[in-house]
Specification:
85 residues; mainly alpha; DNA polymerase, domain 1; 4 helices; 0% strand
């Protein structure tokens, strides 16, 4: 039987909320923390929901859709260029 080893690097090696420094110039100082936290939560939620429904989407798609959701909820207008960054 094949053996697979995996580990989760987020929270251990990578801080997903480090995006704040990149978000500040776009969403402002006052929204950066909230934007980053909501974006990350939606990203994970979309990934888990799709897994449970057996409707896989690439993590990049989940990330993009979570970004659009977050911007809508927080009334932030993102340009196409800002979304691609």
């Amino acid at each position: 039987m094949p053996v697979a080893i995996s580990f989760d690097i987020y929270g251990t090696l990578v801080d997903p909320l480090e995006m704040n420094e990149h978000l500040r110039p776009i969403v402002g100082e006052e929204l950066a923390d909230r934007f980053s936290e909501l974006w990350r939560n939606k990203q994970i939620e979309y990934t888990f929901r799709r897994a449970l429904m057996r409707r896989y989407e690439d993590f990049g798609i989940c990330t993009q859709q979570a970004l659009v959701h977050t911007a809508t909820v927080l009334s932030v207008d993102l340009t196409d260029e800002e979304q691609e960054r």
